[in-house]
Amino acid sequence: MTKPSAPGRVLIVDDEPDVRLSLQLALELAGYAVRIAANGNEALEQQRASPAEVLITDIFMPESDGIETIASFRKEFPATRIVVVSGAAKRPNADYLRAARVLGADLTLTKPIDIERLLEQLRTLPPRA
Hints:
About 40% of the residues lie in helices and about 20% in strands. With about 130 residues, the protein is an alpha/beta fold. The protein has one domain: Response regulator (Rossmann fold), CATH 3.40.50. A five-stranded parallel beta sheet has the order 2-1-3-4-5, sandwiched between helices.
């Protein structure tokens, strides 16, 4: 796996421990500095303490879901790039990933996550103003 071209601090937010761990391991092996959180509230606390350049968040989580998390990050940390991942995109009549883009997500991906595709997308995400 290729290392990111710029220093990469990533914050992963998912309520599923296995998803957090697998993403964390894959990104660390690719050279990213990674922190994890189980929900949006934890993610905001961590971001306030030590900002990450990229947030990777699930949509459906307890205590503060991905939609709330995106809105909070856009308000407090507008330069943070946001990647949204969800298996919910397959649910009928629910376009959660499109809603995430409208709220400010830079990239949306469906679960199961293709790690190689995620890494390629992270390398090419443009910086936010």
